């Protein structure tokens, strides 16, 4: 018998019109899952250096405001995770997690005609970037890791609280389970949030996120994120929690880590420890939360440009 795809709940369109500075198209991953890929190519020069962005789980282009400017000088190729932002859910619910994200990254690279590129990762995308570098070293020219660790991510969460790693992991995996099983009740409430200026002000003064220089853009990023059903997000998050730390001794490309000092989702101390295990790696810590590239877009972008200058073509 031939397998049939499970019914996929529709993910509502973003409440905002798409900006002229982005292009979107479909890419098919190795297992047949249709992905929504995106690029900032319309706003950058043809000869700009290209990076593959492994984005934060369930997030979107608007979390990278500096990369949406005409003068950003970097062409970004990326995609929405499975079941988010217009990307299809896989035929089997189990086909999510870092291994499948690596397969999706390769599909996006192949579609764009990219043999080997620097890889930019944020949050859980750092796991994907490092797993890609370890399993396909010929495809990765460098690693720029923002607010993420190369594996065992959930044990690094709640870093500012200085909890024992097993306790931090138990608490955060438990929170993901709450999202997965409580999602059907939470989603209708979350998707009614307007996230206008008042909502953004509350969020960016919560401690989870700090103030950003572009509240309007921050609101758009959050509204887009909230189009994903919370139970699906929790399901995917639980799958990513199983990803273990990659063998960092095999990394032989330029590597930069950018950490947020007050990050509760990717502990700065774990990022510093990872950087210390990679010969020649650079570690930078900014007074930021997990959303460091939204709170300090100019500083992070300058660090990215400096990093790209060290990467061999």
Characterization of the model:
Mean pLDDT is 90; it is low at 1-13. The protein is globular, with a radius of gyration of 18 Å. With 313 residues, it is an alpha/beta fold. It has helices at residues 98-111, 124-135, 153-156, 165-190, 197-203, 215-225, 230-240, 268-276, 292-295, 297-310, and strands at 23-28, 34-39, 50-54, 75-79, 117-122, 140-146, 255-260, 282-286. It has an 8-stranded mixed sheet with strand order 1-2-4-3-5-6-7-8, with helices on both faces. It is built from 10 helices and 8 strands.
Order of helices and strands: EEEEHEHEHHHHHEHEHH
Specify the number of helices: 10
Q: Poorly predicted ranges (pLDDT <50, ≥5 residues)? A: 1-13
Mean pLDDT: 90
> DSSP strand (E) fraction?
5-15%
Overall form: globular
Tally the beta strands.
8
Q: Indicate the percent of residues in helices.
A: 25-40%
Cross-sheet strand order for the largest sheet: 1-2-4-3-5-6-7-8
Based on CA atoms alone, the radius of gyration comes out at 18 Å
Q: Helix/strand-derived class?
A: alpha/beta
- Termini gap: 48 Å
Largest sheet: 8 strands, mixed
What's this model, at a glance?
With 313 residues, the chain is α/β, with parallel strands linked by helices. It contains ten helices and eight strands.
């Amino acid at each position: 018998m031939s397998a049939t795809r499970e019914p996929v709940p529709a993910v509502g369109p973003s409440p905002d019109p798409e900006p002229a500075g982005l292009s979107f198209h479909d890419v098919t991953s190795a297992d047949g899952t249709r992905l929504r890929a995106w690029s900032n190519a319309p706003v950058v020069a043809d000869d700009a250096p290209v990076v593959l962005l492994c984005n934060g789980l369930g997030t979107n282009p608007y979390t990278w405001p500096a990369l949406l400017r005409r003068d950003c000088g970097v062409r970004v190729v990326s995609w929405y995770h499975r079941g988010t932002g217009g990307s299809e859910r896989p035929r089997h619910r189990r086909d999510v997690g870092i291994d499948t994200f690596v397969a999706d990254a390769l599909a996006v690279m192949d579609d764009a005609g990219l043999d080997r590129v620097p890889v930019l990762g944020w949050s859980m995308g750092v796991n994907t970037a490092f797993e890609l570098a370890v399993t396909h070293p010929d495809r990765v020219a460098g690693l720029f890791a923002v607010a993420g660790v190369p594996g065992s991510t959930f044990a690094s969460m709640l870093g500012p609280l200085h909890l024992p790693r097993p306790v931090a992991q138990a608490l955060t995996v438990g929170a993901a389970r709450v999202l997965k099983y409580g999602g059907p009740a939470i989603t209708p409430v979350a998707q009614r949030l307007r996230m206008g200026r008042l909502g953004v002000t509350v969020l960016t003064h919560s401690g989870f996120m700090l103030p950003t220089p572009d509240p309007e853009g921050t609101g758009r990023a959050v509204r887009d994120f909230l189009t994903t059903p919370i139970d699906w997000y929790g399901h995917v998050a639980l799958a990513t929690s199983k990803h273990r730390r990659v063998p960092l001794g095999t990394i032989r490309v330029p590597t930069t880590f950018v950490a947020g000092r007050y990050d509760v989702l990717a502990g700065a101390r774990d990022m510093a420890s990872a950087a210390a295990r990679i010969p020649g790696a650079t570690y930078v810590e900014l007074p930021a939360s997990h959303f460091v590239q939204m709170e300090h877009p100019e500083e992070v972008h300058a660090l990215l440009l400096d990093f790209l200058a060290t990467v061999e073509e």
